[in-house]
Amino acid sequence: MSKIIIENRSDMSDLDAVEIVKNIVEGGRKSNFGKQYCYLTVIHNWGGAGKQYQVSSFLNKKSDRFVIIND
Fold first, then answer.
1. How far is CA 5 from each of CA 49, 57, 60, rounded to the nearest angstrom?
2. Alpha carbon of 62 to those of 2, 7, 52, 67, 69: distances in Å?
3. Of 14, 19, 30, 57, which is least surrounded by CB within 10 A?
4. DSSP assignment of 27-47
C-alpha cells in the first residue's frame, strides 16, 4: 500500500478535501498508462456553493500526492 498526501491549498474544509480525494481514488488510476490517478480533476459546484476547485495528482516514488486549489 502506498502513502497518499493531500495538500489543501484552497478554502475547502479538510474533511471535504479528503472526500474529494476518496472519490478520485475510487475512480482508479487512469493517467500515465494506468500508473497514476487522473492528472487534473475539476470539481464544479461542490456542496452547492457554486465554487469550483482543481485537484492535481502527482506520482512520487512511494506515494501519491493530491493538490487542491480554488479555481
1. 26, 10, 10
2. 6, 16, 30, 17, 23
3. 14
4. H-EEETTTTEE-SEEEEESGG
Dump pLDDT digits (tens) for 23-61.
Answer: 999 999 999 999 999 999 999 988 777 889 999 999 999
Give the range of the structural domain holding residue 22, as residue numbers without chain letter: 3-70
Q: How far apart are CA 18 and CA 54, in angstroms?
A: 14
Q: What angle do CA 48, 37, 27 make, to 5 degrees?
A: 60
- How deeply is 36 buried, as exposed, middle or buried, from its count of CB atoms within 10 A (0-12, 13-18, 19+)? middle
The residue assigned the cell 474529494 is 20
Longest dimension (CA), the chain: 36
Distance CA 2, CA 47 (A): 29
pTM (two decimals):
0.91
